Amino acid sequence: MERAGAVVLAGGRSSRMGRPKALLEWGGATAVQHAVDVVRAGVDGGSVCVVRAPGQELPALDALVVEDPVPFAGPLAALTEGLEALDGRCQVAFACGVDTPLLVPELVRVVVGALLEGDDAVVPVIEGRAQPLLAAYRVALAPRLQELLARGLGGLKDVPEAAVVRSLTEAELTADPTLTEADPELRSARNANTPEEWAALRALVSHRL
Hints:
The strands form two sheets. Strands 1, 4, 5, 6, 7, 8, 9 and 10 form an eight-stranded mixed beta sheet that branches. The protein has a two-stranded antiparallel sheet with strand order 2-3. It is α/β, with parallel strands linked by helices. It has helices spanning 31-42, 75-86, 105-113, 142-150, 170-174, 177-182, 195-208, and strands at 4-9, 25-26, 29-30, 48-52, 64-67, 92-97, 121-126, 129-130, 134-138, 165-168.
């Protein structure tokens, strides 16, 4: 069985949020620590790599922390850096940002488990939108992603140019009973880019409680 790990992207500009998303508070922890805890549970204690911007301040984390080679070079560069850092530690990595605090370990586990032989990546499609930052990638994909970066590409939407990427439908996700029990509405995919959106996600948790 392939070992699984995770990459948490923490180095975005957070311009609309007005402060670093990684340092937002969620459940008594920072958003980045919360993300690390969730994905680690989802990959059964496997290695977790956090990718930050050069010089970005983060709290002490029980995770491998690496820096983007270029500040704010985009998610493709950050994902590539994270996959390279995990080389030798695992074969598959779940990738997420720090702005999806409703993410549950069960979704991580289902997505990683959906990666089939011949797939380089598997990307959920939720509410009609591809979710490349709730996706699983083979660690060995990193050199091909570097080739995309060398061509001046920087978006996760460009990954299919260098990889076999399979979409994972909502029906496939919700066929797993553990996920439907933990996250029946697939709120894991809801993210926040503004303080108001972050507050709205908090309200969802408060209402559920």
